[in-house]
Amino acid sequence: MPRILAFVLVLATIVFVTAPLFTPPFAGYDPGAFPVAIPDPAVQPAPYAFSIWGVIYLWLLLHAGFGLARRVHDLGFSRVRPPLIVATVLGAVWLAIAGASPELAAGVIWVMAAAAVAAFLLAPTEPDRWLLSAPLAMFAGWLTAATAVSTGILLGGYGILGDTASALAMLALVLLVALGVQARKPRMPVYGLTIVWALAGVIAANWPDNAVVAYAAAAGGVLMLAVVALRRG
């Protein structure tokens, strides 16, 4: 069974990584799909921030390949495989879903993020720090932020909250979740630093036109950095 799961994870990761090659380019939800059209949602990071996916893809491939080649029966690798398979399988179809239904995509990314965070929390920090815990930390961290972004766009797009209010609410949600997760894995700062990367993208997207959101994201980033530093110290 461990070998089968290790092999399935490799296949699921490959499909996940190559999925963007077989789906239409995705540059965010279509504003026209919502009753309230918001061309540039305040909660959404600047485009450059999404380049982190290149690192995530490569690191997850290395994790899955190393696990199959060298750590098939290792308990640390074995226990993260089921939730990680769920996250990568959902990730493989998410782009196609997002282009068709933002509402369904928001639901799927919540499940995807929960699975990725579960895998990260199950992963021991040592040994194999850089091929087990760290790649899962970055994956989980980015999905934590992405879930809030997706939800915030829906809140603004359906007029439940204004654009700025939805961004502030989701920034608070990100920090609440991220601080809780980081507290459970104080020796793996990659998770918290990934959250900081996402917040930096929000600052870049909002400064200077929406200073309230930019300052809130900056404050969140400083808090996250402080927690990472203090918890490691």
Layout: helices, strands, pairs:
Blueprint lengths: L1 H17 L33 H19 L4 H26 L1 H21 L6 H29 L5 H22 L5 H17 L4 H22 L1
Q: Look at the structure and give the mean pLDDT.
A: 96
Give the termini separation.
39 Å
The main sheet comes to: none
The Rg value, from CA coordinates, equals 18 Å
Judged by helices, strands and strand pairing, the structural class is: mainly alpha
Count up the helices: 8
Q: Overview of this structure, please?
A:
- The chain is globular, with a radius of gyration of 18 Å.
- It contains 8 helices and no strands.
- It has helices at residues 2-18, 52-70, 75-100, 102-122, 129-157, 163-184, 190-206, 211-232.
- Helix content is 74%, strand content 0%.
- The protein has 233 residues and is mostly helical.
- The longest helix is centred in the middle third of the chain and has 29 residues, at 129-157.
- Helix 7 (190-206) packs antiparallel against helix 8 (211-232).
- The mean pLDDT is 96.
Give the tags.
233 residues, mainly alpha, 74% helix, globular
Quick synopsis:
The protein is an all-alpha fold. The chain has helices at 2-18, 52-70, 75-100, 102-122, 129-157, 163-184, 190-206, 211-232.
